[in-house]
Amino acid sequence: MSIEIRGVNKTFGDFTALDNINITVPTGKLTTLLGPSGCGKTTLLRIIAGLEYADSGQILFDDLDVTNTPVQKRHIGFMFQHYALFRHKNIADNVAFGLTLLPKNKRPSKADINKRVNELLELVQLPQVANAYPHQLSGGQRQRIALARALAVKPKLLLLDEPFGALDAKVRKELRTWLKNIHHELGITSIMVTHDQEEARAVSDEIVVMNQGRVEQVGTSEALIHQPANAFVSDFLDLA
Ligand SMILES: Nc1ncnc2c1ncn2[C@@H]1O[C@H](COP(=O)(O)OP(=O)(O)OP(=O)(O)O)[C@@H](O)[C@H]1O
């Protein structure tokens, strides 16, 4: 599913958080919103999700205008740093959670839910932890389970907000390679927020560099490195 953001503006009081954002996120690619703290990345992601509404502008999913569509109807998977697993549910029940919430006519049978949970645990390479509880897992393992949970409902769009933000540098590096591999295997359109240029360059098919509520440049890692559009992009990517 391709995503088009057309002329999106957002203010909080007299502060402009997003200033005329126009971008297209291509089908099946992993696109990163990259920029310093406060530049509007999370606000834009929340507007794409339907967790927040723009003051003006449009959001299109495959040419369909979803600007006023509520989050539950956008078929999105979320993996957010602070969107923790349920402590009192075991891992299998955490992964199955989204499926158990589906309306009765769309909800798979118990056997099918179990089968899907097992497939997802295989996919994130943690088949052995189905009966464990979140506190028994490492931070990196918990984030892998968070991805399995996000994928359970077969979303058409995956949104990741600083998914590895709380992890130490070594695990972060391992997980970004892992995420890139899984993304290539599944080919699901994904948008990730990060302030870490090294992380963005390691995982992204395309990078959207943001600054003070505006888009400075959109391109592949190579394009940004070889042809930074301006001094901000060059500085932010440490190219000087
Ligand atoms: N609900 C809100 N009310 C008021 N101001 C807000 C609100 N949400 C965000 N802001 C402000 O809008 C700006 C952009 O915030 P946003 O969270 O989108 O930035 P960000 O680029 O994701 O930064 P970070 O990496 O620090 O999360 C910030 O200055 C923030 O304080």
TrEMBL record:
Residues forming the ABC transporter domain are 3-237
Q: One of this protein's Pfam families, by short name?
A: ABC_tran
Keyword Nucleotide-binding assigned to the entry: answer is yes
- Any one GO molecular-function label of the UniProt entry: ATP binding
Q: Alphabetically list the UniProt keywords.
A: ATP-binding, Nucleotide-binding, Sulfate transport, Translocase, Transport
Report the PROSITE patterns cross-referenced here.
ABC_TRANSPORTER_1, ABC_TRANSPORTER_2
Q: State if Translocase is listed as a keyword.
A: yes
Q: Which domain of life is it from?
A: Bacteria
Q: What InterPro entries does the entry give?
A: AAA+_ATPase, ABC_SmlMolc_Importer, ABC_transporter-like_ATP-bd, ABC_transporter-like_CS, P-loop_NTPase, Sulph_transpt1
Which PANTHER family does this chain map to? SPERMIDINE/PUTRESCINE IMPORT ATP-BINDING PROTEIN POTA, SPERMIDINE_PUTRESCINE IMPORT ATP-BINDING PROTEIN POTA
NCBIfam families associated with the record: 3a0106s01
This chain belongs to the protein called Sulfate ABC transporter ATP-binding protein
Q: Which source organism does the UniProt entry give?
A: Psychrobacter coccoides
Q: What is the lineage of its organism?
A: Bacteria, Pseudomonadati, Pseudomonadota, Gammaproteobacteria, Moraxellales
